Amino acid sequence: MKEKLYTIPVNEAFQADCECPICLMKKTLEDNAIDFTMGPSYMEDDVRAETDKIGFCSHHIEKLYENQNRLGLALMLKTHMDKTIKDIEKLANTGKVSSPSLFKKKTELSGVKAYIDHIDNSCYICERINNTFNRYIDTIFLLYQNDDEFRNKLKQSKGFCTSHYGLLYEEAPKHLKTDRAEDFMKSLNFVYLENMKRVRDELEWFTDKFDYRYVNEPWKNSKDALPRTMIKTNSLINKDAVSK
Ligand SMILES: [Zn+2]
Ligand SMILES: [Zn+2]
Q1: Any idea which ligand is nearest the CA of 61?
Q2: What is the torsion angle, in degrees rounded to the nearest 10, for the CA atoms of residue 104, residue 105, residue 107 and residue 108?
Q3: More exposed terminus of the chain, fewer Cβ within 10 Å: N or C?
Q4: Which of 12, 83, 23 is nearest to 49 (CA)?
Q5: What is the largest CA-CA distance in the chain?
Q6: How far is the CA of 221 from the centre of ligand 1 (A)?
Q7: Which ligand is nearest to the CA of 124?
Q8: pLDDT tens digit string along 54-111?
Q9: What is the three-class DSSP state of 201?
Q10: Angle CA(115)–CA(117)–CA(118) in degrees, nearest 5?
Q11: d(CA 170, CA 178)
């Protein structure tokens, strides 16, 4: 039962005080993947073979840069460039560029185009995250199917960001038995919408506080309403939003 391994992080995330437990799990996976990649493992051959081949997406290259291991990142990008140059040299048509004949040109260019598309759409960090992330999602449904306590936990949670609400909405029928799926959808819709409205209202109070008439009123829960809103709308957890 591989899934059993993941019940702990999933339960912990659903217990945490956060606007989306799935964002929270993803953030932890991301932090771990960055630390792993910038730790000693970037000198290991199998890791480097992968990073040379697929590189990083722009979101994660920025995170890696922030990590401050400049030498590690430079070494990784150097050999990634070596590989890109070598592969493109092999694939690129160095011969004459013929007039745009619809049939021939297309196939000649497709090697380079396909190669670049692949690099553009792949990322070592994203792949590391996604392997475990997908199993976390499976675990959510496994727990919802079988565990009464978890079902209550979900119902009492602070809901989800819009993107992860959509993911659960889409995946539920594939994982749950019909009765459970119906119950899940009801809970999911309720918990998502109720908490969207709660944060929307807190954000509204945050904006009201800029009005001189409310200047002496209490902040209530609105002081960090903006970073918490950014979780709901953009799945973005920054440090201002976590420790409330
Ligand atoms: Zn989320
Ligand atoms: Zn990435």
Answers
A1: 2
A2: 110
A3: N
A4: 83
A5: 74
A6: 20
A7: 2
A8: 999 999 999 999 988 999 999 999 999 999 999 999 998 766 666 665 555 555 556 8
A9: helix
A10: 65
A11: 14
CB proximity list for 68: less than 8 A, separation 6 or greater? none
Percentages helix, strand, coil for the chain (3-state, rounded to 5) are 75, 0, 25
Number of the ligand closest to the Cα of 56: 2
Residue 219: Cβ within 10 Å count: 13
**In 64-189, which ranges are E strands?**
none
Ligand with an atom nearest the CA of residue 128? 2
CA angle 72, 73, 76 (to 5 degrees): 90
Q: What is the pTM of this model?
A: 0.86
Nearest to 176 by CA among 149, 142, 152, 205: 142
Per-residue pLDDT reduced to its tens digit, 197-219: 999 999 999 999 999 999 999 99
58: CA distance to ligand 2 center in Å?
A: 7
Which residues lie closer than 8 Å to 132 by C-beta, 6 or more apart? 6, 29
Q: How many CA atoms lie within 13 Å of 203's alpha carbon, on the beta-carbon side? A: 14
Burial class (CB in 10 A: 0-12, 13-18, 19+), 27: buried
Report the alpha-carbon distance of residue 167 to residue 17 in Å, rounded: 21
* Among the bound ligands, the one closest to the CA of 133: 1
Strands (E), the chain: none
CA pair distance 147, 153, nearest whole angstrom: 10
Amino acid (one-letter) located at 219: W
* 28 CA → ligand 2 middle, Å: 14
Please tell me the number of the ligand nearest to residue 123's CA: 2
Ligand 2 midpoint to CA 67 (Å):
15
